[in-house]
Amino acid sequence: IMYGQCDHPPDSSSSCNQCPIKHCFLFIFADLLPAKNGEEPTMQFLLEFVEILTNYIRKTFDRSTKVLDFHHPHQLLEGMEGFNLELSDQPESLEQILVDCRDTLKYGVRTGHPRFFNQLSTGLDIVGLAGEWLTSTANTNMFTYEIAPVFVLMEQLTLKKMREIIGWPVGEGDGIFSPGGAISNMYSVMIARYKFFPEVKTKGMAAAPRLVLFTSEHSHYSIKKTSAALGFGTENLILLNTDERGRVIPADLEAKVIEAKQKGYVPMFVNATAGTTVYGAFDPINEIADICEKYNMWLHVDGAWGGGLLMSRKHRHKLNGVERANSVTWNPHKMMGVPLQCSAILVRERGLLQGCNSMCAGYLFQPDKQYDVTYDTGDKAIQCGRHVDIFKFWLMWKAKGTVGFEQHIDKCLDLSAYLYNKIKNREGFEMVFNGEPQHTNVCFWYIPLSLRGLSDGEERRERLHKVAPKIKAMMMESGTTMVGYQPQGDKVNFFRMVISNPAATRSDIDFLVEEIERLGHDL
Amino acid sequence: IMYGQCDHPPDSSSSCNQCPIKHCFLFIFADLLPAKNGEEPTMQFLLEFVEILTNYIRKTFDRSTKVLDFHHPHQLLEGMEGFNLELSDQPESLEQILVDCRDTLKYGVRTGHPRFFNQLSTGLDIVGLAGEWLTSTANTNMFTYEIAPVFVLMEQLTLKKMREIIGWPVGEGDGIFSPGGAISNMYSVMIARYKFFPEVKTKGMAAAPRLVLFTSEHSHYSIKKTSAALGFGTENLILLNTDERGRVIPADLEAKVIEAKQKGYVPMFVNATAGTTVYGAFDPINEIADICEKYNMWLHVDGAWGGGLLMSRKHRHKLNGVERANSVTWNPHKMMGVPLQCSAILVRERGLLQGCNSMCAGYLFQPDKQYDVTYDTGDKAIQCGRHVDIFKFWLMWKAKGTVGFEQHIDKCLDLSAYLYNKIKNREGFEMVFNGEPQHTNVCFWYIPLSLRGLSDGEERRERLHKVAPKIKAMMMESGTTMVGYQPQGDKVNFFRMVISNPAATRSDIDFLVEEIERLGHDL
């Protein structure tokens, strides 16, 4: 039944009682709040709207629905069954707005579906979702206590808790939630530079010697983006060699530090990754910390992906030494299942964030306010307005407790071990590296029948490189599941399975494996 | 009535029918999705939760409710009537989660209240709110078409529309939504540097001569933050003098450009503000553009606050010349009433954003995907994951049409003219600058009776400086309304009234004026 197809005159009820159409939207003739008498139409609109959302949520968790209904850009741009993306001068009716909303969801991707494994951020936590709905209803801004008293305090308490979990004494230090891991990593480099060369803030990079940064060749590309953006230059970001599991080789770091010093450059910053994007590798933090201390360099731990493992007594040893870091990136929106966006940058030394970023704008941060203005956070940030990312996380923590996050993480890692054990000796599957994964990343090739007899060589490599993209394309066309692939170094395209979705079970892992076999067998 | 106070055994209904307590939460004994049989409790939880939100929305627009219920940080931290902000190891019940949500709203600030004037972002647009609820339900990420097909296309079409409105030929150019105006302004400086000195990306600032940037002394502090962050140094950001209305004096820009060149520095970037934060001033873009062209400098227009006026045929002349800018910041979350966060950086020359920021991460942006990967936006951004900020804006545009935004903007500017005319000759009020405001900013002092006889001098200045903070403190304690204050240059604390709230009417303006008089009369 289409909405609003009856044209009987409006009456006081929200359903038409003159014709058989359910939910006939008579209220479309009225205006929403703040219009006069807008309260009733507003409540009706929101309730109808929530019905669309709850239907979507119900289907998201239903394995008989597709993960996505794929269309090419030109198809969506041409307008699918009346779904017109173009904006116009004149308003649309509220009934059409509701149709637009349903279409938007229809042609999107169900990232909470139990078989969506495409990204580090997956899943749909109901309490987190409720938290985000409340956040947008409160529609405020984190820069001052004045307009976000509760959220500012929640942020402060949650950051302290995270620092305690990292292991800094009595949770001391500082931190802030930022719009994502890339910006959090950017903060770490900015603060490190401010710590060693504070005059760069006023005089620019000309006031510092040639500074070099170090990070793994497997690390996230945001470190490279940051070295370009902040004026270091990507050539001054030195990539470190890794072992076969994608972990930094500490000796390589020390050799490259010495080499840089011999050239007269100043080694300033080392990024150790806790959970690399593709392999899920954890760099050996303690050994790296030893070198950082020896050569007086800032140690940042990018735990955007792996930070969540700190919540698990079973797995947190993989981040041993994290308490020696000067700063840590940790994205609850990845492994902890918090809705997007939720990323924290945590700093061991108090005052640096403020010192680095404060510009003391008098119109925003008045020292003569009636409350303790040390609670205002705006002058620590590179942003001015800052979205409230804390509430959904705080609410999930309340609802799950620390133990709930631990259970979630242990379960995801169990599932990835299950997948690893299932395919490591299975015909047609080949692991990209040996041994049980450190994180939930399981990296593998699927070898179609036609390639199984081929000996290793250029031809096999070329043909294998095309397999994952082909299977992925078919997967998306059929809409049954989604998993990522990519090349890495000299390794041709392989699948990278990641599990952060709380809805996933062993049966979904089984499904994925069988689906890859079904689609790829005869390639 | 408190939730969950009855302990009758659960049955299939959501309300207890054994005791007089309404909404007895029997479903708290079950688990939410993705738990087995979680569907019914999930739907019940969300419906109860939405009731909390709709009650809040209803009250937000009700003038008989307070704007806020102020408490000091220590009071909230100690726990108000059982509202405990601390996180714990064990989970809370869902009934307690709902109580926490109501408390969070209770002790917050109603930024959509018709008498909330404290920030550039005010108001609560119902369709925009619905858009944000849908966004968080879809919970996806803007970096690839693959996982955000509809949102990526909406962003593309909306940015094109915005460029057309700016006046770039056939809407050509580029752009991206960023987490806020400060980050958008940061993009503009990065892109300008890449345009003139692309080698900085790889070699760092050492590869460029000493570069200088120019902006008004009244401009937003994010320009200063950016000059520190990107490695220019705040000393290389040269502040321009303004006239008494806060507008840049073009001759001062030219003089300072010449002076910088004489010192051997390279003038690279000029920021013209369209709508300054405090005075709401519009810098004369055409005259500044002439100078930028003459000296080959990048012209950025920071229209974070004033960009919305481009939607109004009556007021867009204030941005005359904006089509000559190389880049424009425009925040729909300010003057256009879109929920936070929604900020765009628009760039006239195509390819620069990509050239400046691309790092070609193979694991994210695979050229061998089955769709046209030019739609992937991630490599243009300094972020990796990027929140979907477009949908709520797109949906509001659909619901209002271009004409709806125009009406909103014209109405807000009419209201500010009403306020200006009401107080310009009113006893006890003194304007900070003469003449009708260019934007909705109305800046004024309130002079208590005890100061009215005093002649201008140090004593009067000192005492007047304390008036606005005192009135503001009383305002917040009584919770009746909120408006900002600040000093500016040599001017002591004054009120800055801004109107972007669609719910505000003349009666609310009257109320504010009378409230200031009531609270401040006897100071």
Written account of the structure:
The structure is a homodimer of 523-residue chains. The first copy, chain A, is of the alpha/beta class and 523 residues long. Chain A folds into two domains: 141-388, Type I PLP-dependent aspartate aminotransferase-like (Major domain) (Aspartate Aminotransferase, domain 2), CATH 3.40.640.10; 398-520, Aspartate Aminotransferase, domain 1 (Alpha-Beta Complex), CATH 3.90.1150. Chain A contains 16 helices and twelve strands. In chain A, helix 1 packs parallel to helix 3 (94-106), helix 4 runs antiparallel to helix 12 and helix 12 packs across helix 16. The longest helix of chain A has 34 residues, at 390-423. Chain A is globular and about 60 Å long. At the A-B interface, helix 1, helix 2, helix 3, helix 4 and helix 5 of A face helix 1, helix 2, helix 3, helix 4 and helix 5 of B. Chains A, B: Catalyzes the synthesis of the inhibitory neurotransmitter gamma-aminobutyric acid (GABA) with pyridoxal 5'-phosphate as cofactor. Chains A, B: One of its GO terms (biological process) is gamma-aminobutyric acid biosynthetic process. Chains A, B: GO terms for molecular function: glutamate decarboxylase activity; pyridoxal phosphate binding.
